[in-house]
Write a structure and sequence with these properties.
There is one protein chain. With 259 residues, the chain is of the alpha/beta class. It has two domains: 2-98, Type 1 dockerin domain (Orthogonal Bundle), CATH 1.10.1330.10; 105-256, Rossmann fold. 31% of the residues lie in helices and 12% in strands. The protein has helices spanning 2-15, 42-52, 64-67, 77-88, 95-98, 117-127, 152-157, 192-198, 247-256; strands at 105-109, 130-133, 135-136, 166-167, 178-184, 207-213, 234-235, 239-241. Helix 1 crosses helix 4 (77-88) and helix 2 (42-52) packs antiparallel against helix 4 (77-88). The chain is elongated and about 65 Å long. It starts with a helix and ends with a helix. Residues 4-27 have low confidence and may be disordered.
Length: 259
């Protein structure tokens, strides 16, 4: 046993000359990178040991999730040991990564007035899904949606080629098999920025679940007109909800769909 431990420690010391990237299951966290320099190395082990001994500089709060590789709620010497094991090739992933699987479902919402956003959040909470809000690169003002005044929304909705630019993108769209798409109704149809979104990604093989909010407009062709923009996706039947619809109603609808 002592000989085996000695071999492991020798291997760790040899590998301490190198820095390697950690295999991370969460985009925002590079597990093992306690010092926040973008790589995992023996320096991160030292960083944790000094932090536990309260020797400055202490680990920054923003870097703490990366340091806590054991998945426990507090930082311990076990975290330093696991990083040594990772550098030695004894383990390939940290326990903390195993507890954070990538979400399989994405809820996407466009909500200029805020009526649609809460309903989309209900769906995301129920499905344990990631959440992405579509925001226009040039934000819509109140004047832009003053209907029947030849405002920006009026012009876009009657222009079949209008594709308003979106600020921000969905990272790793390929990881999602299901996309819930929530939007308001503008002049009986989805806002043209929804068209922009659907034309920005490959939805082949994905399931799209659309729903929209309106005061009185029926489903009509607002959902089916979007199908051609992602024709290789499986589209579920859309559903209309009034603003202020409860979380219970949203959850019951998703249950009816088999979720």
């Amino acid at each position: 046993m002592k000989k085996a431990i000695a071999c492991i420690l020798t291997l760790v010391l040899a590998l301490s000359l190198f820095a390697v990237p950690a295999v991370s299951g969460a985009e925002a966290v590079l597990y093992g990178d306690a010092d926040g320099n973008g790589v995992v190395s023996i320096d991160d082990v030292t960083c944790i040991q000094k932090h536990l001994a309260e020797i400055p500089p202490l680990i920054a709060q923003d870097n703490m999730p990366a340091a806590m590789v054991s998945g426990e709620e507090t930082l311990t010497i076990a975290d330093a040991t696991l990083i040594q094991y990772f550098l030695a090739g004894i383990i390939e992933r940290f326990p903390a990564e195993e507890t954070e699987p990538a979400a399989d479902t994405l809820v996407v919402v466009f909500s200029r007035t805020g009526n649609t956003r809460p309903l989309a959040q209900y769906a995301a909470d129920y499905l344990n899904a990631d959440f992405f809000e579509i925001e226009a690169a040039v934000p819509y003002t109140d004047a832009d949606i003053a209907y029947y005044t030849n405002c920006r929304a009026d012009q876009e909705q009657r222009d079949s080629t209008a594709r308003p630019a979106i600020a921000g993108t969905v990272e790793h769209m390929e990881q999602y098999s299901t996309v819930v798409l929530a939007y308001p109704i503008w002049h009986g149809q989805a806002p043209k920025i929804i068209y922009t979104f659907l034309e920005s990604y490959d939805f082949s093989g994905k399931t799209i679940i659309p729903f929209f909010t309106s005061a009185s407009s029926p489903l009509g062709t607002s959902a089916s007109n979007l199908h051609a923009l992602a024709e290789n996706a499986e589209w579920k039947e859309g559903r209309r909800f009034a603003a202020g619809t409860s979380q219970t109603v949203i959850e019951e609808w998703l249950q009816e769909l088999g979720y």
